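Annual report, structural modelling task.

Input specification for the iron/sulfur cluster complex:
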Amino acid sequence: MRALRRYHATFFLGMFLFFLLVSDFRHLRGYDVSLFLELDPLTALGGLLTSHTLYKGLAWSLVILLSTLFLGRFFCSWVCPLGILNQLAGYLFNRRRPVDAYADNRYRSIFRVKYYLLTALLLLALLGGLQIGLLDPIALLERSFAVGVLPAVHGREIPLYPYQPYFHGGILISMILLGILLANRFMPRFWCRVMCPLGALLGVFALRAPLRIRRDVDRCTSCSRCLEACQGGCDPHTELRVSECHLCMNCIEACSEGALHYGLSQPRSSVHQSLDIGRRRLVESGVTALALFPMLRSSRSAFAHPVPEVIRPPGALPEGDFLARCIKCAACMRVCPTNVLQPALLEAGLEGLWTPILINAQGYCEQYCVLCGQVCPTAAIRPLSVAEKVGAKPFPHPIRVGTAFFDRGRCLPWAMHTPCIVCEEMCPTSPKAIWFQSVAIPDREGKPVALKQPFVEPSRCIGCGICENKCPVVDQAAIRVTSVGESRSQRNKMILKGDVA
Ligand code: SF4
Ligand code: SF4
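The model returned the following structure:
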């Protein structure tokens, strides 16, 4: 059984990495690269609570929940890539003498923390604040790989990208993953036992599973070898805590008496412990969530008032709906071909931490690309066709993500008497959103210099940011895009002559 679990785990970890690697505009050939996020019941439940809808892909998570009801918490050791990595890290970093392993693997009251975290996150979601992605293991792992691990691994020997990508705050995100893996040094599967809210949710669903690890009390000699091998810290040597059991099956193999098996109850099998959570602590977690929600909303956020630098990808829902669905998985950032999508730090408020924003100094939105909407597992960025994005028939207008503005104090033709037409050349719209006025301006000596001074036609600008990205004033471009005019918002508009949709 343990060998079977290992093959299974290797297959699923391999599949997770494969999907990450093919989440690239050169290799994405219809693979369902969001499968692991779609299988995740916690993101489905969180999204259901905040947006009152279940995005169709997330219906897969019901398969995991229903299976857990009958089989127990199998997801943690057989499917979850972070659980599998933790198991591997524990094997590498935590090789202990049997007597230490007995102490390490006993159930401890600190394991309850994950239930309190789950309660706080679900209550927050119920109030409208979706922060589940911060701690959900699949979103956390995908984010860490997308913005930290893969860009760090990329190089001449392992070419993962056509260029070197950079992500703001990527180092912090990958340090968190590193910390989680190193924690195995102090307690095997620390994350899964103590912190994981998905593990807690599955633990609750596993409580009445008819299939579980059973101990034949007549055969058991109380040698505790099963405890030495246990991954869950669920006390298989006494009364097994079924909500903590990851079904690693190590205990069955470790028992030389054949006293343990996975299956239905037998007349002389051991009694099982129910969930160990304190009511008082549960209430405290609820109160914390109640206090946290207004704090999150009171920080400066694009939800309360449009923020110029919060430029969301094309197809992003209006800010409130977007925050109610985005799980901060960074799948969109991984697939974006130009590196323009970056994890927000505090630009979108605390609530919008690590949600995607366009930073045009880093890249620009490619006119015929719609990849971010295709891979988003929750439809926070809805899937667009190219025709809808560019405003081809039957769509009356292109999707706008913002509007470009000149900084005349930095623009070469406006401020330095120097000819430059880069922004106009780069502008992909037809007719172009940038146009020129020919002028003759006297220089310092009074000699007239013929120049073309650029202007933006806001009704044509789609906010793609290529002008800002390619502007020869490199450190801070002389033309910059802000979010005003974005199609997704009725509020974030300018009053203009003519039709600006
Ligand atoms: S549509 Fe724009 S933002 Fe989205 S992936 Fe493509 S280039 Fe990036
Ligand atoms: S953002 Fe710049 S390049 Fe893009 S449409 Fe507007 S003016 Fe043109």
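DSSP finds 23 helices and eight strands in the chain.
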